[in-house]
Specification:
Two copies of one chain form a homodimer.
Chain A (H helix, E strand, L loop, with lengths): L1 E5 L3 H12 L3 E6 L5 H10 L3 E5 H7 L2 E4 L6 H8 L1 H4 L3 E4 L4 E2 L7 E2 L7 H8 L4 E5 L5 H5 L10 E5 L2 H13 L5 E3 L6 H5 L2 H11 L4 E7 L3
Parallel strand pairs in A: 1-2, 1-4, 2-3, 4-5, 5-8, 9-10
Antiparallel strand pairs in A: 6-7, 8-9
Helix pairs in contact in A: 3-4
Chain lengths: 217, 217
C-alpha cells in the first residue's frame, strides 16, 4: 500500500521504517522538500522510501499518518491541502501537547474537544482515525516489547476507515485493539497523556503501555 | 482505626461497609444529620457504624475519605470545618465530573489543575492523598473482581499520609499500588475519567480497571 506520513520526527520516521519493512511504500512529508533528516531516512530505508512536502506525501498516500506535533497539526494539514487529503484515511497519532508553559506540558485542547475532532471538523472529507497516540513510538511498531496483554485504542466516525487502520495495526503486531467508537473518544485517549508523562517520569523509561483489565466473569 | 467518610452515596457507603468488615469504626457524614440513607446504612452495618454531619464525621475520623460528588467537594469540606480537618489524612476519591452540560460529563477542572490540588490548596493543613478515583466502587473494595494484575494510583505531598493510605488500600485487597508522586499527579488520574466513561459505555459494565503493562526487560 502507498502510505504518506506527515512529520519527519522520530515518530514519523520510526513508523515509516516499520511500514517499509512490512512491505508498504512510504513517502514522508515535511514543510520543506529539502529536509536533511528526511533525506537520511530515505537513504537508510531503500527504494520504497521517498520524501517531499506535506502536499507530496498527502497526494502519494492511500492511507496517511499525522505524525506532526499536535500544536501544528492543523497548519501542516492545511499545507498538505484539502484536495490531496480528500477521502483519505488519516491515522492521527499526534497529541496536542503545549510545551510553551514549561514542563510538564499541558494539553492545548481537551475535555470538551480534542485534536482528533478539530482535524475532523477542519477537513470533513478526511476519514480521521485516532490511534497509536498513547504509547512511545518504539512500542507502536513493536508491541511485543511489552509483556503480556496491552491495548491500542482506535476511534473515528468512519467504520471502513477504522477497518483499514485496524488492518495496519495488526500488521504492526497489535493483537488487542479497542474500538472506542466515534472521534469524540479522542478526548479520552489524548487525556491519557498527563498520566503517561507522569509514569515516564516515575519509571525513567517509556517501555510501558495501558491495559484495560477485566472482570473474572 | 476511626474513619470518617464524607458523602453517603454509593461510593461512601460501599467503602464504609468494607472498612467496617475489616475491623474499622466508621462514621458517615452528610449535609444533614437526618439522612435516611445514612440511617439505613447504620442499621445494616452494626455497632461500629454511625453517622452525623460532615463536621461530626471529620471530627471523628483519624483518617477521612472524600466520597462527595467532585463538584461539591470543596463546599462539603468547608462544612466539615478546617478545625475538624486539621492534620488529618484525607483520601480523596472524588472526581470533578460536571453533568450540567449533559452526557457524557466533562471535568469541571483539569489539565493545569485538579480537584485534588484544589482541596490541598484550600486546606493546607490537611494531608490529601488522591486514590481510588479511577475505578467503580465495587472494584475499589474488592479488587479481586478483576482478573490478573491491575493498578490503583496514589499521589500526595505527604509521604506519611501516603503510607497510611497504602496500608488501608492493602487491607482492601490491593496488591499493585502505583505512587505517582505529589498531588499534581491528580491531574493525570482525574483525566482518566473520560476514557473510563467511554469504556463503561463500550462494555456496558464497570467491571474493569487500568493496568500499566511493562517491558519484558
Amino acid at each position: 500500500m502507498k502510505v504518506g506520513i506527515l512529520g519527519t520526527g522520530v515518530v514519523g520516521s520510526t513508523l515509516g521504517s516499520k511500514l517499509i519493512q512490512t512491505g508498504h511504500e512510504v513517502k514522508m512529508g515535511s514543510r520543506s522538500a529539502n529536509n536533511s533528516r528526511a533525506g537520511e531516512w530515505v537513504r537508510a530505508n531503500g527504494v520504497r522510501a521517498s520524501f517531499g512536502t506535506f502536499a507530496d506525501a498527502a497526494a502519494f498516500g492511500e492511507v496517511l499518518f499525522n505524525c506532526t506535533a499536535g500544536t501544528v497539526s492543523l497548519a501542516a494539514l492545511r499545507l498538505a491541502g484539502a484536495a490531496n487529503l480528500k477521502g483519505k484515511v488519516l491515522i492521527d497519532v499526534a497529541n496536542p501537547l503545549d510545551f510553551s508553559k514549561g514542563m510538564p506540558p499541558t494539553l492545548s485542547v481537551c475535555n470538551s474537544d480534542s485534536l482528533g475532532e478539530q482535524i475532523q471538523r477542519a477537513f470533513p472529507s478526511v476519514r480521521v482515525v485516532k490511534a497509536l497516540n498513547t504509547m512511545n513510538c518504539r512500542v507502536m511498531v513493536e508491541p511485543s516489547l511489552i509483556s503480556g496483554e496491552h491495548d491500542v485504542f482506535v476511534c473515528g466516525n468512519d467504520p471502513q476507515a477504522k477497518g483499514a487502520a485496524v488492518e495496519i495495526l495488526r500488521s504492526l503486531g497489535w493483537r488487542s485493539i479497542v474500538d472506542l467508537g466515534d472521534i469524540t473518544a479522542a478526548r479520552g485517549t489524548e487525556m491519557l497523556l498527563p498520566i503517561w508523562l507522569r509514569l515516564w517520569s516515575l519509571y525513567q523509561n517509556q517501555n510501558f503501555n495501558f491495559r484495560i483489565a477485566h472482570s473474572r466473569l
